[in-house]
Amino acid sequence: MEKLYIIKIGGNIINDEEKLRQFLLNISTIKARKIIVHGGGKLVDQLAAKLGVEQQMIDGRRVTNAETLELATMVYAGLISKKIVAVLQSHLANAIGLCGADNNCIKAKKRVNAQYDFGYVGDIVEDGINTKFISYLLEDSIIPVFSSITHNNKGQLYNTNADTLASTLAIAMAEKYEVQLNYCFEKKGVLQNLNDENSVIPSITISEYQDLFKNEIVSKGMIPKLDNAFAAIRKGVKSVIISHADDIINIIGENKKMGTSLTAF
Amino acid sequence: MEKLYIIKIGGNIINDEEKLRQFLLNISTIKARKIIVHGGGKLVDQLAAKLGVEQQMIDGRRVTNAETLELATMVYAGLISKKIVAVLQSHLANAIGLCGADNNCIKAKKRVNAQYDFGYVGDIVEDGINTKFISYLLEDSIIPVFSSITHNNKGQLYNTNADTLASTLAIAMAEKYEVQLNYCFEKKGVLQNLNDENSVIPSITISEYQDLFKNEIVSKGMIPKLDNAFAAIRKGVKSVIISHADDIINIIGENKKMGTSLTAF
């Protein structure tokens, strides 16, 4: 099977124009097939504050009211998506910015939670990925750039967690490609000790993760990312690497061992 | 040659959620191949006012400063584009929201004007349309939905006049399709008398337009639209129809004569 890299970029890169440009320049030099997944960083919060749109959080998760969904659609699927595409084009890396509604690429349904209503938050449905169109783009050497906005095919857009979107995409594409999922963020990997930037755990298997989790070695913020990662691995994704965004070129381009590599065994 | 409809929708429909939904429902019932082109209506002005981003106008044309370009990219290529796509999908009309940077669909260069600097305003370059990809989408029964944001292939996005974008697209696609360009707006057509909604001029040829222009019968606001329209006709577009948005279903779906039809002779 051909290799496919699905690269999720976090808020830290997106918030910093210079970092984003450098990251995209790096990405453009990688010849292998790739998909980029992004959220929107802090820009939605900043816009919401300026416009007086109140933000409600439940257990650290954003409640997406109608106005916030509009802001997220503007920022993620508009500004950030098109900026990324324009910069990639300038490096002769052909790209296309898509959200889940485009060509019905990613179908979701409203999150149902007995306790809370998270508003316009969508969870991707079973078989919700248009792998046929995404494959067509990849075969034509076009980089699909996905913002984390999805839809329900009934006219409603949703805000979807970008980490989950990346892992769901990875699972769906694993039927046709040997998929490596790369979570790029501002730390060098999963840290043994949050205060020591150099305490990167080089690799974690599923059983090791259960130990780390039990012993509370992984930080709370990493748990959703790791849960997503291992869900992907259980469903056919070859490997997941969590690393600093600056290291992506070494990891993919030169196949160096950096960051934290997650595997089944 | 197969028929292709390029349908430009104006601010008046975009500003009104209900009108937009009805319009898109109408569009979805038309089986022929079609492209939608849209700007952003008043939402950019409203956002700019709320955020304190100053808007400068020269001769009735907006100067696009860096902040306004960001707002336009958010609103046109994000919110409005994805809303249109999601609503079309709900009517089982497959669609994809694109700006000029996506898959290098529409290439532009900064407008050069000896007198004024219009900022990030882009004019589409010769051979700037990716007709191959657009044709692929059309052949696959996907409706391309273009927002009026373009790029220069060097990392810069531009704001481009949506009427001009529609006519330039029409000219490029006329090599492969029999193109009808439809400008949909809030009046029933080109009016003989601006104060009489029913004084629609049913048809105008190029030579008749020159007379109307000389005798100042067409209103100032219509001139750019008509100039664009006749430029398209001179370059191979079969016909241009300027009509009320509500009449599109009768014009395309039932081939009724409504609005103002522009032709070469």
CATH H-tier superfamily of the domain at 3-186 in chain A: Acetylglutamate kinase-like
Quaternary status = homodimer
How many individual helices of chain A? Answer: 9
What is the count of β-strands of chain A? 14
- Strands ordered across the widest β-sheet of chain A: 5-8-2-1-11-13-14-12
Beta-strand fraction estimate of chain A: 25-35%
Major sheet description of chain A:
8 strands, mixed
Radius of gyration of chain A (Å):
18 Å
Specify the structural class of chain A: alpha/beta
CATH topology of the domain at 3-186 in chain A: Carbamate kinase
**What coarse outline of chain A follows from CA principal-axis ratios?**
globular
In the predicted model, the low-confidence regions of chain A spanning at least 5 consecutive residues are none
The CATH class designation of the domain at 3-186 in chain A is Alpha Beta
Tell me the distance between the termini of chain A.
Answer: 21 Å
Helices and strands of chain A, in order, run as: EHHEHEEHEEEHEEEHEEHHEHE
Largest interface: A-B, 37 and 37 residues
Estimated helix fraction of chain A: 25-40%
Provide the CATH architecture of the domain at 3-186 in chain A.
Answer: 3-Layer(aba) Sandwich
Average pLDDT level of chain A = 93
